Amino acid sequence: MMVYLLCLVLFCVGLYCVLMKRNIIKIIVGIIIMEFAVNLFFVLVAYRMEGRAPILSPDAEILNMVDPLPQALVLTSIVIGLATTAVLVAIAMRIYEKYGTFDITKIKELRG
Amino acid sequence: MIMTAHIIPLFVGISLAGAFITSLLGKKLKMLPDVTGSLTTFALLILSLLSVWVVNVHGILVYNVGAWKLPIGIALVLDGLTAFMLVTVNLVAFLISIYSINYMERFTSKWKFYTLFLLMVAGMNGVVVTGDMFNLFVFLEIASVASYALVAFGTERHELEAAFKYAVMSIVGSLFILLGIVFLYSYTSTLNMADMAHILAQKGTSNIILMVSVLFIMGFGLKAALVPFHAWLPDAHPSAPAPISAMLSGVLIKSLGIYALCRIFYNVIGISSSLSSILMVLGTLSMVIGVFLAIGQWDFKRLLAYHSISQVGYVILGIGLGTPLGIIGGLFHLFNHSVFKSLLFLNSGAVEYATGTRDLQKMGGLSKKMPVTGTTSLIASMSIAGIPPFNGFWSKLIIIIACVEAGRYGYAFWAVLASILTLASFMKVMKYAFFGTLKEKWAQVKEVPFFMKLSMSLLALISLIGGVLLVPAVKEVFLHKAAEVLVQGTQYAVMILGG
Amino acid sequence: MSKEHEKGMSIIVKTITRLTVGLILLYGIYILSHGHISPGGGFAGGVIIALSFIHLMLAYGKEVALKKLSKGVASFFESIGALLFLSIAFLGFTGGYFFLNFLSKGEPFKLFSAGIIPLCNIAISFKVGAGLFAIFVALVLLKPEKGDKK
After folding, report:
1. Partners of A23 in the β-ladder
2. Which of A54, B108, B169, B293 could pair with A65 in a Cys bridge, judged by C-beta atoms 3.0 to 4.6 Å apart?
3. Do B160 and A94 touch (CB under 8 A)?
4. In angstroms, rounded to a whole number, what is the distance separating the alpha carbons of residues B403 and B321?
5. For A58-71, how does the pLDDT look when each residue is reduced to its tens digit (9 = 90+)?
6. pLDDT for C98
7. For chain A, which residues make up each domain, given as ranges?
8. Mutation choice for A interface testing from B116, B144, B168, B233 by most A CBs within 10 A
9. Can you say how many angstroms the Cα of residue B333 is from the centroid of all Cα atoms in its chain?
10. How confident is the model at residue C107 (pLDDT cuts 50, 70, 90)?
11. Per the omega criterion (within 30 degrees of 0), is the bond before A58 cis?
């Protein structure tokens, strides 16, 4: 139970960074932390008591392995996170070259 | 397993193949991106019309990818709602890809545009076709990431700022959706939608399902721009290039946001009266707030973006009612809005292509010099305002009648009010942009090139004859099948697992 | 001799890089090819292969690394990897289903077994490795432009 609450705390730390920080790079780091928290939560959901790693070898029984499905899904999710981070960083670098600053309180041309 | 079920994976396969062929060879051959983009979307349109026929003949089709049996493998499902969404998405995508043959000449590297565009179409087709929860999330992300890059395509100042805001809010929405999927997996220990519906019906509602519903409303509401979560839309849709604005506003917010919301709430979790009330309240808020914020706008595309929020509110109000007539009205309005909102954004793109400005106060009397654009814009404005006999009138009428029939007079009043204000707003647009006296600096403008004219005229034609979808013979085939799937609710699971 | 000492990192880093970058590439190929027997597979192997090229770029400077694997070649490999994956999926139609595992399965725990899975791993590693390297190169080569142009 404690591990799940700590995952939630990590998610909230990331959300705090996205909402309250003024530097664009810190916002991107906040998003990365949130993604890691959700992936971690997903892997922890798969744990079974007294389970082993779900790798089949010629002398293993299947009965006491942890659930392998979330591990495959989290791999996909990490790749998706990588792609979105790459797009965000590319946009942030171009914003720096057009606006000259990383401060979001100064990047406010669209209004109304 | 019948032979015709094999067309289902082709929707994803053909669009992905088109995207990667364009990325491989697009730099060397000049005409390749245009040809590939148009041919791919045309092939998808033909396949989607074929799939409507297939659904009417064979009923629901289930396709197990890789021949893994349910519920272990990924299942692709083709039923009435899927066929309806496929036709909407692919029709608009084909007409927009024809339009961009001429419009994107002004930008550099057209092959990058077509690669990202076809990836976005592949993602949307995948979301609509899949029957597995995590597969839905993966295709949702493919379409979203492609759209972040497309909004920032011109790399000017306001485009980058809008793209950054849109990307951050949309990623947070996707994370909420992923959290919801994780909770559902831990509760039901399966990922297939039909199997999940079956197990949820047996286990009954518990607190975790309430939390999952809230997470999904937040996540999909962010994607569909419902009212508390709409802040990204007025910045992102005007700043993107015109075909991308049309694509985002016309199909992306519908297939990623509204379709996924309906599918999960009606077919997997099962609709209850409290959920239905929440959807109706959110829909009404979107309708009213969108239209009030749009009245004071002088930027053409920003005004259209606020109206998108309002019309999406109509669709959610219709679908949230839960009665068969309401669902038919909501889905019909979804199709109509895709058609006329894309047409309006393409018109604004044509005006920008010819005059270089988006400010309504600087334009005037353009319809003398640009007759095709002026006429199609008039048709689209009358459609969105709900004037008979254009298609917008019929769908709004059905939604209002369904509200009155269900006894919810308050919602019907707000719907009528929003419709009147929409009419006022578009009267302003037409007066300032197209009618009136021609200013001297616009004396040199010419009509837009051929492909842009072709795609705008085709969309206007569909908008004109859209009312024919309500003729009983056609309604049975197209709208009724779609509405039936939602009305049946969790019986969907029985039909898929049994068949 | 003086030119080599100006770009990149110090000589200790350059010597160690020269010794280990081939081993890192080989390790990536090992993880990739044993993806159906032990943990790893296409994505992890592809990332490690990309890391070996990025390591070269970090230690020696971008010209040396771009001579080994230029931008055009990376872009080509990326598209080829994706098209290879799609064509394996479409070839499943010969067995009757999209993405069917149509090659012989062999015996478990051997290297040549499990049908199309090793081929899919190779295709994915092309795409991921070339893609990661291309992202890094694109971000490194981004030059700030002066003024406000379209």
Report:
1. A103
2. A54
3. yes
4. 7
5. 666 767 788 888 98
6. 66
7. 22-46+65-112
8. B168
9. 11
10. low
11. no
Q: Which of C123, C117, C124, C81 is nearest to C102 (CA)?
A: C117
CA distance B227 to B166: 15
DSSP states along B160-177: HHHHHHHHHHHHHHHHHH
Q: How far is A92 from chain B (nearest CA, A)?
A: 8
Q: Are B378 and B430 in contact (CB under 8 A)?
A: yes
B17 with C100: Cβ contact below 8 A: no
Residues 6+ apart with CB under 8 A from A106: A99
pLDDT tens by residue, B312-362:
998 999 888 888 888 888 888 898 899 889 998 988 888 888 887 777 777
CA–CA min distance A35, chain B (Å)? 7
Burial B251-288 (b: 16+ CB within 10 A, else e): bbbbbbbbbbbbbbbbbbbbbeeebbebbbebbbbbbb
**C57 CA to chain B: closest CA distance, Å?**
25
- Give dist(CA A20, CA B111) in Å, integer: 38
pLDDT (tens digit, 9 = 90+) per residue, B433-442? 777 777 777 7
Q: Are C115 and C100 in contact (CB under 8 A)?
A: no
Residue B108 confidence class, pLDDT cut points 50, 70, 90 = confident
Nearest-CA distance A11 → chain C (Å): 25
Query: In this complex, which chains have at least 3 CB pairs below 8 Å with chain B?
Result: A, C
Instruction: Give strand pairing partners of B192.
Output: B132
> Residues of chain B with pLDDT > 90: what percent?
19
Going from N- to C-terminal start, the domains of chain C cover 2-140
> Which residue has tokens 């009965």?
A63
List residues in chain B touching C: CB distance below 8 A. Answer: 6, 9, 13, 16-17, 20-21, 23-24, 63-67, 107, 154-157
Q: What are phi and psi of B452, to 5 degrees?
A: -65, -40
Interchain contact, B172 vs A34, CB within 8 Å: yes
Chain A CB contacts of C150 under 8 Å are none
Cross-strand bridge partners of residue B61? B78
Q: Which two tokens stand for residue B12?
A: 């994803």
Q: What is the mean predicted confidence (pLDDT) over B195-221?
A: 87
The answer to whether the complex's ipTM is over 0.85 is yes
DSSP 8-state symbol, B272: -
List the subunits that have 3+ CB pairs under 8 angstroms with C: A, B
Q: Which helix (H) or strand (E) holds B43?
A: helix B32-58
- Which three-class secondary structure state does DSSP give residue B205? coil
- Min Cα distance C2 → chain A (Å) is 33
Residue B499 confidence (pLDDT) above 70? no
CA B123 – CA C83 distance, rounded (Å): 17
Q: Please tell me what DSSP assigns to residue B266.
A: I
Query: Of B267-271, B394-398, C99-103, where does mean pLDDT reach its minimum?
Result: C99-103
DSSP-based three-state secondary structure for B408: coil
Neighboring chain A residues of C36 at a CB cutoff of 8 Å = none
Considering the entire predicted model, what is its pTM?
0.92
Q: What would the mean pLDDT of C108-129 be, rounded to a whole number?
A: 83
- The proportion of chain B whose per-residue pLDDT surpasses 70, expressed as a percent, equals 99
**A98 and B235 in contact by Cβ < 8 A?**
no
**C86 contact residues in B (CB cutoff 8 A):** 13, 16-17, 20
Say yes or no to pLDDT of B369 above 80. Answer: no
- At B104 the pLDDT is 81
Domain that holds residue B260: 3-498
The DSSP H or E segment spanning B62 is strand B61-64
- Assigned token pair, A5: 């609450």
